[in-house]
Amino acid sequence: MLSNKNESQEYDFLSKLFHWFMAIIIVYTMLAGFSLHIIDEHSSLWFFISQLNISLAFLSALIFIPRWVWSFFRTEPAQVTMPTLQRNVANMFHSLLYLLMFFVYITGFLMLSEPVVILGHLNYVNPLIQHDNICDLFFIFHRFSCYFLFFLIIIHVLAVIKHQYIDKNHLLNKMLF
């Protein structure tokens, strides 16, 4: 990472915007996606949540690319004191989060076995739509990658709580508006 240090104790506005926009959409789409497994598949509620989920995931996937690119160019705030091993694990963890988000997006769009309308205007037809077995396989990959992403988000939140309240290094303040 090309981490230029800055004098600020916080992340820049764009980094915060990317982070919280993605966080809100990812948490919503995960909860909505999990809820689709308990809602009647033929109900209007299921259709609405499914369409909203796909549209928000599409928006999030579009934002993902500039967010990832920006992570290489943003200036880093003053670092909290942390052992080298812990910092390396944190960097590896964030890389794993990015990789897993990318995998969730790809499998999510490749699992679709029917054409969908995104944001009420964009027609998306999965290029693998004629191959039900492949779509089913991507559904399985998507489901398990969502479970793994959910697990990593829990670890991420627990790490923030640890830094904020146990280490008292005010890490959370760097990402709040």
From TrEMBL:
InterPro entries the record matches: Cyt_b561_bac/Ni-Hgenase (IPR011577), Cytochrome_b561_oxidase (IPR052168), Di-haem_cyt_TM (IPR016174)
Q: Which stretches make up the Cytochrome b561 bacterial/Ni-hydrogenase domain?
A: 11-176
Q: Which UniProt keywords apply?
A: Cell membrane, Electron transport, Heme, Iron, Membrane, Metal-binding, Transmembrane, Transmembrane helix, Transport
Q: What membrane topology does this protein have?
A: Multi-pass membrane protein
Can the keyword Protein transport be found in this entry's annotation?
no
Where, if anywhere, are coiled coils annotated?
Answer: none
Regions crossing the membrane: 20-39, 45-65, 96-120, 140-161
Extract the signal peptide range: none
Question: Which prosthetic group or cofactor does it need?
Answer: heme b
Q: Where in the cell is it found?
A: Cell membrane
- Give the family per the record: Belongs to the cytochrome b561 family.
Protein name as it appears in the record: Cytochrome b/b6 domain-containing protein
Source species: Shewanella surugensis
Q: What is the lineage of its organism?
A: Bacteria, Pseudomonadati, Pseudomonadota, Gammaproteobacteria, Alteromonadales
